[in-house]
Amino acid sequence: MDIEVKQNHYYTTVIITADNVNIAEDVTKSFFKQDENGKHVLSHRDIEDSSLQQFSQVLEDLFYYRTADYDSTTMIEQAFAKLPEDSAKKLLEELNRNYGE
Predict the structure, then answer these.
(1) Do 35 and 50 touch, CB atoms closer than 8 A?
(2) Cα–Cα–Cα angle for 8, 9, 11, rounded to 5 degrees
(3) pLDDT over 70 percentage in the chain
(4) Which of 38, 46, 73, 81 is most buried (most C-beta within 10 Å)?
(5) What does the radius of gyration of the chain's CA atoms come to, in whole angstroms?
(6) pLDDT tens string 4-33
């Protein structure tokens, strides 16, 4: 099975391919704002919360069922960088309590 993410200026697509499966899913949400003339114009695009939640759940399940150690440091660092500041501080305090010296 191959899983890849492709991005261009307009959307982000997750592509899953296997022996008899080929799925390409746009996981992008568009955000609009009103300009000075009252017209709705594109503000920005981002990954859908629901799509990110689904992939997060799959990863959680994979980690749960894996028996061997796995170095997920890079993934954890990237996820930590996306946390709101108050959540990051709270998690850091909890990690220090549980794993600190």
Answers:
(1) no
(2) 65
(3) 99
(4) 46
(5) 18
(6) 999 998 899 999 999 999 999 999 999 999
Helix, strand, or coil (residue 16): strand
The encoded tokens of residue 49 equal: 């919360």
State residue 10's pLDDT score: 86
Q: How many helices (H) and strands (E) does the chain have?
A: 3, 5
Structure token pair of residue 84: 């709101």
**pTM of the full predicted structure?**
0.74
CA–CA dist 39, 32 (Å, integer): 10
- The count of residues in the chain is 101
By the 8 A CB rule, do 60 and 75 touch? no
